[in-house]
């Protein structure tokens, strides 16, 4: 028997008991006549003690020579500690060692295995297995497991069946590039790894599995963006014989359940906001509604004077930043420069200080009088003491610039409390999105999303205006899930492919299986997927999804521990009928 107890579980009630423990040497402190060892396992740390009075000399010597991260087994007796440590749960006791076995030695680890480590990100990733021994990483993985368990518990309770769908498939478009896998047995042919199980879950609906879920890996070969992983995990769901409202209710309940079970937070019901409202009020389809600073549109109250910048702008829009009227000239200049950085790209920023005495002081006093500025304050909801920040220009660009400014100011003002949760549904997304570069429309969600009833004909006349039965769940300014009611009619699906620029032949080659299935009694259906990594990070009150993934890839999509991706040898290339390395 390697252990009778775990290191973390021993308490005062165990005093007097003989125990066997196994774990890693976190630390040894050698005071000459006495040696203390911190022994660590997944469950915690326990102090071991050996001294000249009570331990034989050979054993004491052995303890002295233990290196950090050696794996040892000890037998001993639980005793009360002379000097107690209130900071750890086992701090009132220690184990007086009578036997010690080294189970395995360890090289000195390249960084300290402590909550605050001296290891940089790269080093920690290269030795991730050592990083996982540290509490912050270990606790995140345990937390993730709990969230996943609770998801399974809730969904099974609702009658959902977990079904695995294949990883070696044909492209499922979610707007990214596919990772492909060459087939050895089918020369010159490739599988694609699923960007999502979208088509399979729809086929499961045709198969009559009316409530499906799966905690599943998805693969998207996207350009690098901060905190994206090329492989990530979804809680993927689909239901048949449902309308949008049914789906929103089930997954709102799932989210409430998780917030309650995992965070102890109770939330009544989630607000619903249309995409158009979200864009107009927050400049963003995933608004953080933990704080105000809603957009005030100012065209009507700014375009009547001689200020050319505003008069020629498609949109003039502002936010009232609470308490920021006190900003110094230097701080304000810094803010203006900040919005003008290429990453944000504003041409400039007009601001108005709303003084405590009710007067206003703006950077455009030359053009606007106090009455004008009072109207701006009204439109942005500004109070005395606030600073109104105004951007102008092309409507879409200006909205997204102001949205970035809004988030920045909220962060600065400490309004983004990670322990406060503000979920909402954003609904009525546009069906299509114009690609500015090619001038073509793409599916905003994916090509299987259904338009709002009665709007199909608009695809010919005003495609950009067609709204979809599509929805996102947003939590604290992050999209944590999204889905839609699907097209289940083969003709409508064919029409949709046509509008997305597929020839009938292309549509058949890529999605023939789905269109065929739709000829055999496809039920009305819809669903959604939550990003598990992101959800877990937010519930865990943290920002980075990497910290909740056991073996994540770095920002270049590499696993630096196993050193992947890597070249393969010519023999393997040949077997796969891939071109040989031209060097040889
Ligand atoms: N397949 C979609 C996605 O990955 C989710 C859905 O529509 O259910 O975003």
UniProtKB/TrEMBL annotation:
Homodimer. ATP binds at residues 220-222, 229, 479, 531-534. It catalyses: tRNA(Asp) + L-aspartate + ATP = L-aspartyl-tRNA(Asp) + AMP + diphosphate. Its EC number is 6.1.1.12. CDD domains: AspRS_core (cd00777), EcAspRS_like_N (cd04317). Keywords: Aminoacyl-tRNA synthetase, ATP-binding, Cytoplasm, Ligase, Nucleotide-binding, Protein biosynthesis. The keyword S-adenosyl-L-methionine does not apply. Residues 198-201 are annotated as: Aspartate. GO terms for cellular component: cytoplasm. The gene is aspS. Pfam families: GAD, tRNA-synt_2, tRNA_anti-codon. GO terms for biological process: aspartyl-tRNA aminoacylation. GO terms for molecular function: aspartate-tRNA ligase activity; ATP binding; nucleic acid binding. PROSITE patterns: AA_TRNA_LIGASE_II. It is found in: Cytoplasm. HAMAP family: Asp_tRNA_synth_type1. Belongs to the class-II aminoacyl-tRNA synthetase family. Type 1 subfamily. It comes from the Bacteria. L-aspartate binds at residues 174, 220, 445, 486. Catalyzes the attachment of L-aspartate to tRNA(Asp) in a two-step reaction: L-aspartate is first activated by ATP to form Asp-AMP and then transferred to the acceptor end of tRNA(Asp). Residues 144-552 form the Aminoacyl-transfer RNA synthetases class-II family profile domain. This is Aspartate--tRNA ligase.
């Amino acid at each position: 028997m390697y252990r009778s107890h775990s290191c973390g579980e021993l308490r005062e009630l165990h005093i007097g008991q003989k125990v066997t423990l196994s774990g890693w040497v976190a630390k040894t402190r050698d005071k000459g006549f006495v040696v203390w060892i911190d022994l660590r396992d997944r469950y915690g740390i326990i102090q071991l003690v050996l001294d000249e009075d009570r331990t034989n000399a050979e054993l004491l010597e052995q303890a002295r020579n233990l290196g950090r991260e050696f794996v040892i087994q000890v037998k001993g007796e639980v005793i009360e500690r002379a000097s107690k440590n209130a900071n750890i749960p086992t701090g009132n006791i220690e184990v007086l060692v009578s036997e010690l076995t080294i189970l395995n030695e360890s090289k000195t680890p390249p960084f300290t295995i402590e909550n605050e480590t001296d290891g940089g990100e790269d080093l920690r990733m290269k030795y991730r297995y050592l990083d996982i021994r540290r509490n912050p990483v270990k606790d995140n993985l345990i937390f993730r497991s709990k969230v996943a368990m609770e998801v399974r518990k809730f969904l099974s309770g609702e009658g959902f069946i977990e079904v695995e769908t294949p990883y070696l498939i044909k492209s499922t478009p979610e707007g990214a590039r596919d990772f492909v896998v060459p087939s050895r047995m089918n020369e010159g042919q490739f599988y694609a790894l699923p960007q999502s199980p979208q088509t399979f879950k729809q086929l499961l609906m045709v198969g009559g599995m009316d409530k499906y879920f799966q905690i599943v890996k998805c693969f998207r070969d996207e350009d690098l963006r901060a905190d994206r992983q090329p492989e990530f995990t979804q809680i993927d769901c689909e239901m048949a014989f449902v309308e949008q409202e049914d789906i929103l209710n089930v997954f709102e309940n799932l989210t409430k359940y998780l917030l309650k079970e995992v965070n102890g937070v109770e939330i009544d019901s989630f607000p619903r906001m249309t995409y158009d409202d979200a864009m107009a009020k927050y400049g963003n389809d995933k608004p953080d509604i933990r704080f105000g600073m809603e957009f005030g549109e100012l065209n009507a109250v700014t375009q009547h004077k001689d200020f050319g910048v505003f008069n020629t702008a498609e949109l003039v829009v502002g936010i009232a930043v609470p308490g920021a009227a006190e900003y110094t000239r230097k701080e304000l200049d810094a803010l203006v420069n900040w919005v003008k950085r290429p990453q944000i790209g504003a041409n400039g920023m007009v601001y108005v200080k709303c003084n405590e005495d009710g007067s206003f002081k703006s950077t455009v006093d030359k053009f606007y009088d106090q009455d004008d500025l009072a109207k701006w304050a009204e439109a942005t909801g500004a109070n005395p003491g606030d600073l109104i920040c105004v951007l102008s220009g092309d409507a879409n660009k200006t909205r997204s610039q102001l949205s970035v400014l809004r988030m920045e100011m909220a962060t600065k003002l400490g309004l983004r409390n990670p322990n406060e949760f503000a979920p909402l549904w954003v609904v009525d997304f546009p069906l299509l999105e114009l690609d500015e570069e090619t001038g073509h429309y793409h599916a905003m969600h994916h090509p299987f999303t259904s338009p709002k009833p009665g709007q199909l004909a608009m695809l010919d006349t005003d495609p950009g205006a067609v709204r979809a039965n599509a929805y996102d769940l947003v939590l604290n300014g992050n999209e944590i899930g999204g889905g839609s009611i699907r097209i289940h009619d083969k003709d409508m699906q064919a029409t949709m492919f046509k509008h997305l620029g597929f020839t009938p032949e292309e549509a058949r080659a890529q999605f023939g299986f789905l269109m065929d299935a739709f000829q055999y009694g496809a039920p009305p259906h819809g669903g959604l997927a939550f990003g598990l990594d992101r959800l877990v990070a937010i519930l865990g009150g943290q920002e980075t999804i990497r910290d909740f993934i056991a073996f994540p890839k770095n920002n270049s999509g590499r696993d630096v521990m196993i050193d992947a991706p890597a070249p393969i040898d010519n023999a393997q290339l040949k077997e796969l009928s891939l071109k040989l390395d031209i060097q040889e």
